[in-house]
């Protein structure tokens, strides 16, 4: 029996703490590697700024989906719930370049619902890690299926990948 590679990667392999000092050192080396002087006035604080932004950009690696989808409500609701135009800001895992777009998420409730803001949060949670669009889509769907106890979940992502559009 083969293991679905997307299923394998639905959660981070290990939740290790963010190491800002290590990120700063790596960015300093990157600047040197591209032929820049990391000590010049415009770049001297860049490693620290990048480390701070990476802590946010990759924040999905340092929490769990259960931190985001904390509450469901039993309302006896059995109709279609749709949230459109959820912003996506992610990072291509192959090139470490931005993926920017929108997700449209829908489900048919079997009696349980989540707050609409939680749909935005689950999209953001999975987007805040190195990603490929296909995995991001499946992670969102599978998480909502599990939390809501319904197979009737759909996610459509419309995104621009800067690695493709450059």
Low-confidence stretches: 5-9
Q: What global shape is seen?
A: elongated
What strand order characterises the main sheet? 5-2-3-6
Query: End-to-end span in angstroms?
Result: 40 Å
| Helical content band | 25-40%
What share of residues are in beta strands? 25-35%
Q: What does the average pLDDT come to?
A: 89
Question: What is the chains' assembly state?
Answer: single chain
| H/E element order | HHHHEEEEHEHEH
The total of helices stands at 7
What structural class do the secondary elements suggest?
Answer: alpha+beta
How many E-type strands?
6
The main β sheet shows up as: 4 strands, mixed
**Rg of Cα set:** 19 Å
Write the layout of secondary structure elements.
Layout: H1 5-8, H2 20-33, H3 46-57, H4 65-68, E1 72-77, E2 80-92, E3 98-108, E4 111-114, H5 116-127, E5 130-131, H6 133-148, E6 153-161, H7 162-165
Parallel strand pairs: 2-5
Antiparallel strand pairs: 1-4, 2-3, 3-6
Helix pairs in contact: 2-3, 5-6
């Amino acid at each position: 029996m083969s293991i679905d590679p997307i299923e394998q990667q639905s959660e981070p392999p290990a939740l290790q703490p963010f190491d800002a000092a290590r990120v700063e050192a790596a960015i300093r080396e990157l600047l040197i590697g591209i032929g820049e002087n990391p000590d010049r006035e415009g770049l001297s604080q860049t490693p620290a700024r990048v480390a701070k932004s990476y802590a946010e950009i990759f924040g999905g690696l340092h929490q769990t989906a259960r931190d985001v989808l904390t509450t469901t409500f039993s309302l006896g609701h059995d109709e279609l719930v749709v949230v459109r135009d959820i912003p996506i800001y992610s990072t291509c895992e192959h090139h470490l370049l931005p993926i920017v777009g929108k997700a449209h998420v829908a489900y048919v409730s079997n009696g349980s619902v989540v707050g609409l803001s939680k749909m935005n949060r689950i999209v953001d949670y999975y987007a805040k890690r190195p990603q490929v669009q296909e995995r991001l889509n499946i992670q969102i769907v599978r998480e909502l299926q599990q939390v809501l106890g319904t197979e009737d979940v759909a996610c459509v992502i419309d995104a621009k990948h800067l690695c493709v559009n450059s």
